[in-house]
Design a protein that fits this description.
With about 230 residues, this protein is an alpha+beta fold. The chain has a single domain (about 5-220), classed as Distorted Sandwich (Glucose Permease (Domain IIA)), CATH 2.70.70.10. Helix content is about 20%, strand content about 25%. The chain contains six helices and twelve strands. The chain has helices at about 5-10, 40, 45-60, 75-80, 210-215, 220; strands at about 30, 65, 90-95, 95-100, 105, 110-120, 125-135, 140-145, 160, 165-170, 185-190, 200-205. The strands form three sheets. It has an eight-stranded mixed β-sheet. A two-stranded antiparallel sheet has the order 3-12. It is globular, with a radius of gyration of 17 Å. The two termini are about 30 Å apart. The relative contact order is 0.21. The mean pLDDT is about 90. Pfam families: Peptidase_M23. InterPro entries: Cell_wall_metabolism_enzyme (IPR050570), Dup_hybrid_motif (IPR011055), M23ase_b-sheet_dom (IPR016047). This is Peptidoglycan DD-metalloendopeptidase family protein. GO terms for molecular function: metalloendopeptidase activity.
Length: about 230
Amino acid sequence: MKNLESILSKHNKDFSAVMPYDVNQENVWLIDLSDSNREVAQLKSPKLLDAYIQEQLNANHYRTALGGYGEDRVIYRNNNVFDRPDQEARSIHLGIDIWDAAGTAIHSPLAGKIHSFANNATTGDYGPTIIVEHELENYTFYLLYGHLSKSSLENIFVGKEIKKGEQIATLGDFEENVHWPPHLHFQIIKNMQDMQGDYPGVAKPSEKDFYLDNCPDPNLILNLSVLNK
């Protein structure tokens, strides 16, 4: 049986854009949220991170910013966002983030159906989240869309058919997505492990290998050329 990565690579020219514009044609900021970015390392709250990102986007006339897959993010360790101070911090990012304004439309890159959805409204979580089930070459996998608007969860239901290119959501504002800067968290998942409407988007370094295997690089679908350089 082929693995998911090879199947997605084979079909990567067939996927439509997730954003309502071609990111590859825009002025894009590859934001570094690891501890090698000293400016980010000094930020002690999501609110300060929001201000930093918006300042950089405006000052440099970026259309959008991209946050990396597999990145070890200092902001999560600094704030114990997901775990207590005495626990190993979850800091390995399992998706790709695309920063844009609240209300920006989000589209499905291929046909599928709604697997599950939820408003994960606890501190540090995704806020409104939609998970769509897809199948290619008899391989079932899932795409998670996090940090959406509350209105994105209206008029949807488990099993609802989704067409390729269909708008499925809009980005949430700072309050809706649990005090994170407005952005899309986009993640591929092979095995949902019986979870509904939620799946970890950040892993402990000690569990990195398992989660990066279960959540392959989203650029296999997004096809963002700037991430391949």
